[in-house]
User: Fold these one by one.
Assistant:
Number 1:
Amino acid sequence: MPMSLIVDGIDEAVGSTPLVRLDALFPDSGIEILAKLESVNPGGSTKDRPARGMVRDALKTGRLTRGGTVVESSSGNLGVALARACNAHDVRFVCVVDARTNATTVRLITALGGEVDVVTEPDPETGDLLTARFHRVEELLAEIPGAVNLYQYGNPANPRAHYDGTMREIAEATGHQVDVLMAAVSTTGTIGGCAAYIRDHRMDTRVVAVDAVGSVLFGGTAAPRLLPGMGAGVVTELSTQVDPDQVIRMRALDCVVGARHLARSEGILAGASTGGVVSALGDLIPDLAPGTRVVFMVHDGGVPYLETVYDDEWVRDNLDADAAAIAEGLDQLRRTARRG
């Protein structure tokens, strides 16, 4: 085991997350599965990396100063991460969320000193909540003197955090030998930074983006999405700079099934987007050669999803799936991923 380290402040505890071999997830698959456990970051998600990077960049360039205000749109995790990062630098933080955001996540943002502004109605022209959040951000920027928007959807410091951190750590831990990299997409900062590192270091790695049904990213068709953290209702600026080798789209029920399978087989309680990645991996396994090494992101922890993804009543009421349907989904996922 590595030696314990003493770091100067919580910001320095971001990153260096473990890469965990999963032997029980799909035991008959014949492939090596490694999970990048981003859920153990101080804020509980991979968003700690871009939050720290964007705040530091804004302070360094003078766009932001101590005592200033950041206004940002978030489906949840970046809001938690920015609340922590802004608080550490004496910066006021106002987070614009929408009605899909988990109640626990909202409480975490406020507990860390952030202010929450909730958008309850979708944009009347597009029917999209993300677009409505963007409009609300613009209103707040006009109302709050000197406020700045870090704009996670187009800020190059977002993918840079994953280029310099997430993918570098994965590459160094594996000797740059990764056959398949899988990540859920929303802003596409994570997969964009990782893909750029793979390209620049000439790694022979297939990059798989896991998106939500109803997301418009990478040519998708817009439709309502019940779970936050995966997909987008607009084509983000960062997504135009990413060309994944494959895009797999998952339904909300797939996310529920995948998250529960990960929890029960490996004891890792993860969020909805990671559940989507697990289900996508199950679908992908029959097409992979024995011995293939797959790395996937555990984007965040599952505690904020206990009242949704892990709650049978919520799944029944919102996804029209009872306990029997969930059990059938779990059985199907295991069968699909079984080799032979």
Number 2:
Amino acid sequence: MQIDYRLISIASVVAHDRFFIDGDWRIADDPGRTIDVIESRNGRPMATVAAANHADVAAAVEAAARAFPAWVGTPVAERAAILARLGDALARRAEELAALEAREIGTPLTANRRFHVDATADYFRRLGAYADAVEWEMRLPESRSIRVPLGPVGLITPWNNPLLITAMKAGSALVAGSTAVMKISELAPLGLFHLADAANEAGLPPGALNVLSGHGAEAGEALVAHPAIAAVSFTGSIAAARRVASLAGERIKPVTLELGGKSASILLDDADFHPAIERSVESAFHHNGQYCLATTRVLVPRSRLAEAEELAAAVVEEWQPGDPLDGSTRLGPVVSARHRDRVVAYIEAGIAEGARLVVGGSDRPAGFEQGFYVRPTVFSEVDNGMVVAREELFGPIQVLIPYPDGDDDAAIAIANDSEYGLGGAVWSADQARAERVAGAMHTGSIEINGAMLGLDAPCGGFKNSGFGRESGRVGVEDFLTWKALHGAVHA
């Protein structure tokens, strides 16, 4: 039967005035404090959720602390099997989850299904393999060291890819043996309520995973500061990260920060520009530009800048705005009116600073009087000191930056001249040359000649892109620490 995604309701969300605590849906301490969830494609409220306060956070942390001894004593293989079942339960809800995220954050349905929902289910299923790859024990001549979980952890997730980032954080923590409390974004909470239901369906013990919606300044800070929380993993803005790191530092807690990016795609002079420009624009516009690894700076040899402009303009024609619930749409709205205004202000700043507008602009796309739509925009003749080259735009904006022909070092210098260091790309007909350039880029993940980022590899950045690593085996290890048993008898 063909499903009309526009008619899918959110009725299966258990209760908007409740939180998932200790394996059950508990009414909020103050159910009158609510947050409207706004539908990105039309600007209308689509749900209300409760806003957690300190008492709600305390109840969730206490549940995680009670559940920790039994969960850490559960064999790793059994923990992994439960999480694989959670992935299966999410896969059974794929259509509804994809539609919910399209409505909440604007990512088109097809991209949601592939890169968010299916990838999330797959990640939960892979956790057993990641755990098997961990070095759980290290034998030395006079001691035996073992890896142990840190304890109950606090996880603060963003709105832009809530399901997959939750899998990387909560899934990795749980298979490592930690229990978790999640403070989810108030902008996109609905899919994660489904995940909580799926956790029960999979047989995750009560208290192992607890889910709260709320504001960072109250619920997030209360979670980080709670004395029973052993470590914190945060994804979000630099400003919020500074506050999280400060609170964690005051309490001597380890913290993982996955923050923003301003990634450069370096096109060397021998590159095939057609696939390079196509992939670079796709990276910048994927997820409506709301993607921290987006290669929003394209570095082009000066003599080939006009060619790059022509190719980019042609590619943008394939990325025209549309209804995110239409399966053929590639570019939907951004998440909120506030965020749309921020992205539009960056376009206006680029024009004011003298960047050449190749395509797009700050005016509302024709035919989209409602919703939070932004015209797909490409600038050229951008200097790396301009605002559009320095700041994370988090919208469908691409900038072309010229560099001297044949000067690989100049391209590397421009790429590294950023407060961020999360992602990047290199394109060249000479693989060895591409790898040399990639090796000199000060960033956490680099795509060479269009290779896609994989879930098995560690993900994280340098500088203001944060520290610590998520995803794959390394992501599991981030929730573990070493304990040395001196004089222990080797088995």
Number 3:
Amino acid sequence: MKGNLLQLIDQFLEYLEIEKNCSKLTIRDYRHYLEVFEKWFTTNLPDKSLADLDLQIIRKYRVFLANREDTKGMTLKRVTQNYYVIALRSFLRFLIKNDYKTLEPSKIDLPKTESHSLKFLEKEQVDRIIMSIDTSKEEGLRDRAILELLFSTGLRVSELVSLNKDKINLDRKEFGIIGKGNKQRIVFVSERSALSLKRYLDKRKDIFKPLFIRYSGKIIVDNNGEKMRLTSRSVERMVKKYVRVSRIPVDATVHTFRHSFATDLLTNGADIRAVQEMLGHKNIATTQIYTHITNRQLRDVHKSFHSGNKK
């Protein structure tokens, strides 16, 4: 089985794509994590097979991960090390399901990582960022439409840049999206966001298919304008630019707008299951990270009963 390790990894990745409907990004990451394990395993344990895998070998692999450096020469963060182990556990689970003899993945524990506070923007901070945009040019209208849409819908940046003009219904103020794991959902556009999108699209005179296009570099005309599509990296740089210009006290990113969308809904009384659907979360536990800062009932209890609130 040792000689077939790369083949088994390929079979596992095919399983993720076909059976589990995982995204291409997830499959790419899992391929990287497992190929790192394959190289380490075959190099350091040439006489071993996956049937010999035990917790002692796993500990040695984790020591290797703890000392592994990333592309910037920095050792891997604990959370990043866990991604490698999570991928390995999933791979072993797949092998056992297909009657291969190997280590039971449930025996491999994941160490707790540092807890990071959830970063989100207040409505006033979102407004400050948006108002810092110069909309006298078409590029500025695009940037405002992007930020308004991020806050209005909670879209992931990959979902945002994949949008096409013909899929946006500004009359109904909603559209369908295929998100992470090819999960379909409906997103809703606020009145303000719809207005910004309309102003931007009314200014566009091109025939390019993408909803958001780039304005720097050479104009490349192809059949559908794909080469003019704005990239995720460009959106990330754009958000950083306006966060810096607005001078808000939060180092906000594109994903911060997604957090802000969720906290805004929950703070104003939205049902967590509805927010789960709008975010496209597969598991409710993922959405529950927002509840500790948005639980209105707990806030009302504190306001009513804590002695420090008594006049």
